[in-house]
Amino acid sequence: MNHNHTHSSDNIMDQIDRIVTLWHRARPDLSFNSTEVIGRVVRLEYFITRRVLQDLAHYDLNVGEFDVLAALRRHPPSFQLSPNQLQSMVLISSGALTNRINRLESRGLVTRAQADHDRRGVIVTLTDEGYKVVEEAVKHHLAAEAELAAALTEEEQQQFAALLKKMLLSVED
Which helix (H) or strand (E) holds 171? Predict the structure, then answer.
């Protein structure tokens, strides 16, 4: 294993180190260990979001619209879901979801129709064009994720994923 790769960042200060150093001076009585973790997760989220938004802009999609297309794409062979199913997968209000579906429908990426089994129900379906767009967008999205995670070895990525999962499970319902 390449130990140089693992510890190459130890003696270089990042933005969080600078903030924690100042806090230690201002409040030496407090522990800022959690800031070292949470501050870095929050800062990474900023860079990840910026990169994802740049990638999705090529497809004239925002993150929410991509999430809807991706949720439909994960449900072959019909690529259909009800608004309730979509809402539970993308975790937003029904009003916000309706706006996303409207925009995607106006672009011909999804269709909305009455569900056969339920006169009141609606079913959202990925169109052929929507399928093409999400296939391309997912490829770019995965490439961007891989590029962002490339600072870590595969083993480190697995360890980090496990640690992040442990943190998420402690706060998720």
Answer: helix 154-171
Omega cis (within 30) before 77: yes
Token pair for residue 168? 């998420």
- H-only helix segments in 58-153: 63-73, 83-90, 94-106, 128-149
What number of CA atoms fall less than 13 Å from residue 7's CA on the CB side? Answer: 5
Q: Does 3 reside within a domain?
A: no
What's the predicted TM-score (pTM) here? 0.80
Provide the residue range defining the domain that includes 27.
13-57
Structure tokens at 140: 């770019």
Instruction: Give the E-state strand segments of 4-96 in sequence order.
Output: 80-81
Residues 74, 101 share a domain: yes
SS3 152: coil
Distance CA 173, CA 166 (A): 13
Q: What is the mean pLDDT of residues 30-57?
A: 93
pLDDT at site 7? 52
